[in-house]
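seq:
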Amino acid sequence: MNAITPLSEKYQTIIKSLHSQFNNYEVPIVTITKRSKTEVGTIFERINNTGTDLTTLDLMVAWTWSEEFHLQEKITELLELLEGKQFSKLPQKTILQCLSAVLQKSTSTKAILALDPKQVHDQFEGLSASMERAIDFLSTQLNATEDFLPHVQQLIPLTYFFSTVNAASDKQITWLKQWFWKTTFSRRYAAQTDEKMDSDIELFDQFLSGNGEGLGKYAYTVTGPQLVKQTFTRSSPLVRGFLLLLAQNRPLDLVSCGVVDLGRALSEFNSKEYHHIFPRAYLKKRAFPSDRINSLCNFCFLTADSNKKISNRSPSDYFTELIPQDRLADVLDSNLMPLSKDVYEKNDFDEFLNRRSQRILDFLDKQLL
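struct:
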């Protein structure tokens, strides 16, 4: 019995039309022969714009599979391992780029697809150890967590570096930190990131041989006006970089004058740990636009308790009433804030932003010495 017979004529017509569309749909097929897996992968990436969303990882999982090794499972295990180091949300492609950096000294898709399956099998455990050492460097030397890493690309050449050495020398640590700050406060990874990371790997080879001259080609590009214009948002590498830079100066809480708990403040991007130095409500009453109120230069680390005490009070008020005057200079200096009292006594917000942006750049320069 025809399954659609009990249905009304209207629905029978719709079903027949739908059935016809499925039956007569033409599936495009491209047959590729006598091509290497690298060529197949490149062709696939170029033509697969609207079809099944197969990624470079999908291709690598297929090409490296064996009964003893499953790349996707290995990556999942690695991310679980890195969870304890607060780096469990890394993009899977980043892990492939780290692997390719270690094995090929290149992070391009072409280099990834050219990886030898046996090498991947044999070296994956070593990759895990190299990434752990790279993340330990970011954590111990720069207070960086996954949420506060300015550019995920920075992890990749660092993984290459620590695949070669278990620990960096004092001189190498200095070079690596200078590289980190220069790449953080520039637009180095805004475009052609594979080429830039491959170039970083070449630089790190120089570091490994005891030569840091290549750093001369790197420079930060951010300016004072750009810092002032930048709004405080999690998505900005500049904001994450600023918070890490401020952390290097062991900032003091504005009210208690105690050293800020950076582990808590940098564990995640939690708005309760940051404070408008010129309070938002105070500036709104003075008709400042939102983007200027939320300028990166108007923020510092602060506990929720101190934030409540300051509330919407003007700087001329709370700087006198809440901050112990014998600690004022230390508090200002530790937070990279202007040291002259006049800017706070006059509640001069525009001048404050300009002076603070310069203090930030001056402190950045010190990290590059």
